[in-house]
Amino acid sequence: MALEFTDENIKDIINSGKPVVVDFWAEWCGPCRMVGPIVEELAAEYDGKVVIGKMDVDNNVDTPTEYGIRNIPTVLFFKDGKVVDKQIGATQKAVYTAKVEALL
Q: What's the whole-model pTM score?
């Protein structure tokens, strides 16, 4: 199951030493609802290897602002605490999988 990121917990998770994938989304966003199930599948498939989760931009405003999130869905890929890739907008699972694999 995908982790729920918040403004309070994200820094500790990003700096945990594991690769991290964060899906920035909102309940009202149609394309976000298309990406959500993909994020859940990836979280299950990469459990223990990559920390994968979601951040609701309506309930957490500091982190999206810090990373310049202007469009959702936006998925950021972190390695060693730094953003190394991103995907803006919905796309196929294969694209997300390739980006996750690149973190390993």
A: 0.96
